[in-house]
Amino acid sequence: xxxxxxxxxxxxxxxxxxxxxxxxxxxxxxxxxxxxxxxxxxxxxxxxxxxxxxxxxxxxxxxxxxxxxxxxxxxxxxxxxxxxxxxxxxxxxxxxxxxxxxxxxxxxxxxxxxxxxxxxxxxxxxxxxxxxxxxxxxxxxxxxxxxxxxxxxxxxxxxxxxxxxxxxxxxxxxxxxxxxxxxxxxxxxxxxxxxxxxxxxxxxxxxxxxxxxxxxxxxxxxxxxxxxxxxxxxxxxxxxxxxxxxxxxxxxxxxxxxxxxxxxxxxxxxxxxxxxxxxxxxxxxxxxxxxxxxxxxxxxxxxxxxxxxxxxxxxxxxxxxxxxxxxxxxxxxxxxxxx
Length: 339
What we know:
Elements: H1 3-7, E1 13-15, H2 25-34, E2 37-41, H3 47-58, E3 65-69, H4 78-95, H5 110-119, E4 124-128, H6 134-141, E5 146-151, H7 154-163, E6 167-171, E7 177-178, H8 193-203, E8 208-211, H9 217-225, E9 230-233, H10 247-254, E10 261-264, E11 272-275, H11 278-283, H12 293-308, H13 330-337
Parallel strand pairs: 1-2, 1-9, 2-3, 3-4, 4-5, 5-6, 6-8, 8-9
Antiparallel strand pairs: 7-11, 10-11
Helix pairs in contact: 2-3, 2-13, 3-5, 4-12
């Protein structure tokens, strides 16, 4: 049985989990109505809020999933943290905000979120940033969930297979937002998605879903022809009616003068693809690794920029297909992509 069959999907389209607000319960429900599946983003969420969102989506559909950040923080030394904090001071003074003086390290409340999923079972759980222990994978599977592991290399795929994952989400360098790489200090080479699918299919028999820069029906057909069972889309959904992306982000995606996306660690301390803006251009070369410490460090700046309507200091996550993001109902867009 394919993973699509197991989850009751009629459309080979997956609404990607986008942490920080874009992946609303309404967007996840729209993906199910279209015949595909959508994922709530548990990353950064309070466990209580995650439980509320699961209950909200459950009232609308029994076909959806939840995405978790694996508990694999990227540490940062005090000296590197202090140096980057000093670089951010002019931005902080501009907005009149204070920045955390010491690194805030956490595991995104992993154990609490596992407990939420045990109390509120869902059909599918995807994991990114690293591989959970086999014990935790089995713990999720005992709730009835299929566990889908995000991978960016053949080696990651092989380890996920051995650990007991039910399926793999193959993410290429073209994806918007954070790379799911397990080794942020040595991110994977920019290999085309079709080539990744070919090599990973030779290494495992697990079902494969493809992610990264997919924003058109033709692109969906191409990755499926290359061996993907379904296509995972994210950036293309950011301007839909159900998206929770803030208006400043949505306007930036539609702006004619935005010219490129870049990979940057400037906002979170983890490699991520975003529309280039003043903050990313100024700090990408100097930003250290350090997640979630840098995420918490830049949070006051990003909140202030959102309040001020200033796109130049925001993490404008976007994949390479960002120009295909349009303002329309998500269900219609997803049906078109899967046609």
